[in-house]
Amino acid sequence: MDEIRLNVALLRRKVPNLTTAAKSIGIRPATVSNLCTGKIDLGKAEVKTLVGLATLANCTVDELIIRGEKLNMIETQIKTLDFFAPLVKGGTTGIVARPGMGQLVILAELMHRFKDTDYTTVFLLPTTEYSELDGTTELADYVTKSVNETFVKLSQLSGDIIFITDKSYMVSGELLDLQEKLVSESMDNITTILLDLSGEVVDEDMPYGPLETVWQLDADLSTRHLFPAVHPIYSTSSIIEGVDLDQRHFNLRQRAQKLLRRYRELRSIVVVHGMKKIPDAEKETYNRGERLEAFFTQAFFVAESFTGQEGKVVLMSQTLTDVEAILDGKADHLSIEELKYTGSLA
Questions:
Q1: 344 phi and psi, to 5 degrees?
Q2: Of 7, 144, 250, 328, which is the most exposed, with the fewest CB atoms less than 10 Å away?
Q3: Distance between CA 122 and CA 119 in Å, rounded?
Q4: What dotted CATH number matches 247-339?
Q5: Looking at the domain 4-67, which fold is it?
Q6: Residue 289 bridge partners (DSSP)
């Protein structure tokens, strides 16, 4: 039987205001979002939901479903991104964060890392000036100031492209027009990353509309300076949730999320009442969860002058090995400080 997934790109182009449109026909935005990222298996989706989405997109149900086409990830060598929510090649990723939580540092680091690869980065500046962009956009290979300028530049480039822009172009509809033009020119080599410098996207039912990947930053991790502060439960990717992931990776992610979910519950008790209120049977869970949380911090090259810590790269294969070791108790002897910002355990 062919593996199937939702045609997120088509849905994104055809239904600009999907949240409102979905609500108008009785479909919950969360359901649509989970179908897009694969949290809900498309094979288990209600027929009326698929028919409703096809109606909104003015297409057939068959056109809304992609069969047998494998998704590929772009390995960033940033542990928490690659492990919990891989970047989908050719897809659209949205960063969900309030101002000051580190989304620009993540973007700067990605642009820095792509410098020595086959990927070309293009940054379309927001419609509003933001002083916090100073020092970030300079890391892009090309910076554009309008959608028309961006289309011309993208058309001139060959090879794989990372395109970064702000939510403001989605609100105006210009980004959807740009994507339509790119599709008409058969330019399918573009991976899009969206940010929202206003921070309003955090409060939306369906941030950015249909996405292949969501990177949601966590206020608690950010407050405790555990960067890149990517939420291990809410961040997700259609690669992870779908059929295109290595089984070992899938199983380890399931185990890690289960551990971290319970650890977070226990931590809320410890913060108020201390360790004495944690049952002995749960102390192992708490301790390993604390270590796993610390392990997913990572020093960035672009922040070396501020932190004094050398940037770290960690291959996906090594991340899987290290996470497995922590889950199996093989890192119980390591302190939390030894695990923070250390890269790999090797």
A1: -95, 170
A2: 328
A3: 10
A4: 1.10.1140.10
A5: 434 Repressor (Amino-terminal Domain) (1.10.260)
A6: none
